[in-house]
Automatic annotation (TrEMBL):
Biased composition (Basic and acidic residues): 89-99
Protein name: Sec-independent protein translocase protein TatA
Organism: Streptosporangium vulgare
InterPro entries in the record: TatA/B/E, TatA/E
Alphabetic keyword roster: Cell membrane, Membrane, Protein transport, Translocation, Transmembrane, Transmembrane helix, Transport
Family: Belongs to the TatA/E family.
Region Disordered: start-end pairs: 43-111
Cellular compartments annotated: Cell membrane
Gene3D superfamilies, A to Z: 1.20.5.3310
Gene name of the record: tatA
Length: 111
């Protein structure tokens, strides 16, 4: 492939300006950059999936066992955390709170 000289690059630039216009050219370049980033990340994911996991050798060394393990204190039972409300429940609570705040904001202030 022949090397592009400065005159060829200027001609290509002028053609691009004529085709896209000066205002849309930066927007087209941004879109192209985003597309290339997405394409690179997707191809990297495909390469990671295709590579087989490498086998690692592990060396197990025998540890001397203590005669009797020390008794561990049993922690006190902690109450289970309450389950998180669903998205609908959270939305309903937020709507109720917003209605209360609107009512407070609209109420006349007494001194």
């Amino acid at each position: 492939m022949p090397n592009l000289g400065p005159t060829e690059l200027i001609i290509i630039g002028l053609i691009l300006v004529l085709l896209f216009g000066a205002k849309k050219l930066p927007e087209a370049a941004r879109g192209l950059g985003r597309s290339l980033r997405i394409f690179k990340s997707e191809t990297a994911k495909l390469r990671d999936e295709d590579e087989p996991p490498t086998a690692t050798a592990t060396v197990v060394q025998a540890q001397p066992q203590p005669a009797a393990p020390a008794p561990q204190p049993i922690p006190a039972a902690t109450p289970a955390p309450a389950p998180e409300p669903s998205a609908e429940e959270q939305a309903r609570r937020l709507e109720e709170q917003a209605a209360r705040l609107r009512a407070q904001a609209g109420a006349p202030k007494s001194q």
